[in-house]
Amino acid sequence: MFRVEEAAPWRAFTSPRVLMYHFFGAPLSGRDPDHLFVTAENFRTNLGSLLDSGWRPVDLDSYLGWWAGDVRLPHKSFLLTIDDAHRSVVDLAAPILSSFGIPSVLFVPSGLIGGAVCWSDDYARERIATADELRRLPTTGMELGVHGFDHTRMVALGPSELRRHTVDARLELERVTGVRARAFAYPYGTHDSVTRRGVAEAGYTVSFAVARERGSFARWRICVDGNDSQTAFRFKLTPTYAAASLLGGRAWRARHLVRDQVEAVRRATIAGTGRPRVR
């Protein structure tokens, strides 16, 4: 019987941090209700702050090697990931990451390549990168992964739907870009045991959620959004945030605690008093 690893979340507490971004620059509509857009200036500041404070970037090979026990990494290590394959990744994020020498993983909804966002009315005009653009990204240090077929929420899926968003999505990305993806990220960060098993059986090496750590096929990530001040961004790297975030993926009370902590840091920053210590 196929068994999907269900690791205790506390090893993730000491693992390399995995940062999750979405869009860059500014929205076409001028509206960004979910704060998905991070400006180029703030993105550069985020990256510079990480490197200046001793954080070291890792690629997916090193990240997987750490979990396997084959690779030793500095205590302050991070893997940078980006969801949705928005056109701004090509125009802004990839060149900035390349200038810093930071590798990354881009998760692509492969059935939407060259199209537009269809899963949100608020972002419906936003463009997805084309096949030609995606094919060029690995030369910049950006690995391609799969983000489902069309950004469908992956819970309570039947067998045919699950295959479409795992096996077929991987084949489509390979067909149009030549890349056979080994990493997967759940749209909206949501998953269940059937979904995790389906991703594993589809042949992926690892998959990522958000805060809901469930082993190799639902690794936790830290969401970085356009509403984060630099103080809030640094706070998200702290052990305090990691503990609350990992616990928050399993209990609704803790999820609210995480949100309250981040909001308190933002309010303190606005007031000019927020100085949480970053380790």
TrEMBL record:
Q: Which GO terms describe its biological process?
A: carbohydrate metabolic process
Q: Which Gene3D superfamilies match?
A: Glycoside hydrolase/deacetylase (3.20.20.370)
Of the GO CC terms on this record, one is: extracellular region
Tell me which Pfam families the record gives: Polysacc_deac_1
Q: Where is the NodB homology domain?
A: 76-279
Task: Drop me one GO molecular function for this one.
Answer: hydrolase activity, acting on carbon-nitrogen (but not peptide) bonds
Q: Name the keywords, alphabetized.
A: Signal
Where would you find this protein in the cell? Answer: Secreted
Q: Which domain of life is it from?
A: Bacteria
Designated name of the protein: Peptidoglycan/xylan/chitin deacetylase, PgdA/CDA1 family
Naturally occurring in which organism (per UniProt): Pseudonocardia ammonioxydans
